[in-house]
């Protein structure tokens, strides 16, 4: 098995390192192809006919690494079609610095990479962790538990590959992946996004309403019960 590892926080992000460490622990062959810099909120976007730069970088936890000056989905297209990599059997995306749940999940570049892989017939797992501090300083968060939680979750999902095609995992810092709930994507919005005129930017805050939730929602499990949420999707 050959894994593709990517993300939307950039190839030097602590979550990517944690995921690479987890894959190394499991002894699975992999290559990292990740954006050159942060690409949060890129969804499944990529531009055709626009040249992008790419180059090999220092290995990530011993795993060969390429960074691409484009989005996570573009990294997947590069990995699957450029001929630079061996054939890919599974795409891993993350571990994102901050949870990706609720009705606006498709905004996530982390999840967008898995969607791109899935559209090309390659199964994938998107992994995110809850916010662990200031959103703009993820290197200062506690990442010590994330590689272990990722390895355990990957082991479980890989042992049950007949039951899913794509998966969205959100690690709670409270249970650290040890007591996950299998969920569906909520129809409620988890993040509230507004365009702030003063700053000239879209600002996001957590702003779901508990009365809009269903018992099997990812928001219910993650935010209300403080448990890791795993949403499995079968191939159509």
Question: Helices and strands in order, then pairings?
Answer:
Elements: E1 2-6, H1 14-26, E2 29-35, E3 54-60, E4 63-68, H2 72-81, E5 90-97, H3 109-119, E6 124-129, H4 146-158, E7 166-171, E8 181-183, E9 191-196, E10 201-206, H5 218-224, E11 229-233
Parallel strand pairs: 1-2, 1-5, 2-4, 5-6, 6-7, 8-11
Antiparallel strand pairs: 3-4, 7-11, 9-10
Helix pairs in contact: 1-4, 2-3
What does this 3D model show about the protein?
This protein is α/β, with parallel strands linked by helices and 236 residues long. The chain has one domain: Survival protein SurE-like phosphatase/nucleotidase (Stationary-phase Survival Protein Sure Homolog, Chain: A), CATH 3.40.1210.10. It has five helices and eleven strands, in the order E-H-E-E-E-H-E-H-E-H-E-E-E-E-H-E. It has a nine-stranded mixed beta sheet, with helices on both faces. Helix 1 (14-26) packs across helix 4 and helix 2 (72-81) packs parallel to helix 3 (109-119). The radius of gyration is 17 Å and the shape is globular. The two termini are 23 Å apart. 48% of the residues are buried. The mean pLDDT is 96.
Percent helix: 10-25%
Radius of gyration: 17 Å
Helix-strand makeup class:
alpha/beta
Q: How many strand elements?
A: 11
Supply the CATH superfamily name: Survival protein SurE-like phosphatase/nucleotidase
Mass-distribution shape: globular
Count of individual helical segments: 5
Our measurement of the CA-to-CA distance between the termini, rounded to an integer number of angstroms, reads 23 Å
Could you please say which CATH topology applies here? Stationary-phase Survival Protein Sure Homolog, Chain: A
The share of residues in extended strands comes to 25-35%
CATH top level is: Alpha Beta
Largest sheet: 9 strands, mixed
Model regions low in confidence, pLDDT < 50 over at least 5 residues: none
**What are the secondary-structure elements, in order, as H or E?**
EHEEEHEHEHEEEEHE
């Amino acid at each position: 098995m050959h894994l593709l590892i990517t993300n939307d926080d950039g190839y030097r992000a602590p979550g990517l390192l944690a995921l690479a460490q987890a894959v190394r622990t499991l002894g699975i062959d992999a290559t990292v192809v990740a954006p050159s810099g942060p690409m949060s909120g890129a969804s499944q976007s990529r531009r055709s006919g626009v040249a992008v730069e790419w180059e090999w970088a220092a290995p990530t936890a011993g795993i060969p690494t390429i960074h691409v000056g484009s989005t996570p989905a573009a990294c997947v297209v590069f990995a699957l079609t450029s001929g630079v990599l061996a054939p890919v059997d599974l795409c891993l995306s993350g571990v994102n610095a901050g949870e990706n749940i609720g009705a606006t999940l498709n905004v996530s570049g982390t999840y967008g990479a898995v969607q791109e892989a899935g559209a090309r017939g390659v199964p994938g797992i998107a992994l995110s962790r809850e916010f662990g501090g200031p959103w703009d300083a993820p290197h200062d968060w506690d990442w010590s538990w994330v590689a272990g939680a990722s390895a355990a979750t990957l082991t479980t999902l890989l042992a049950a590959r007949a039951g899913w095609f794509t998966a969205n995992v959100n690690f709670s810092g409270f249970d650290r992946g040890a007591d996950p709930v299998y969920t569906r994507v909520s129809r409620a919005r988890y993040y509230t996004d507004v365009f702030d005129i003063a700053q000239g930017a879209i600002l996001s805050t957590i702003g779901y309403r508990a009365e809009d939730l269903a018992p099997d929602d990812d928001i219910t499990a993650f935010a209300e019960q403080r448990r890791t949420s795993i949403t499995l999707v079968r191939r159509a």
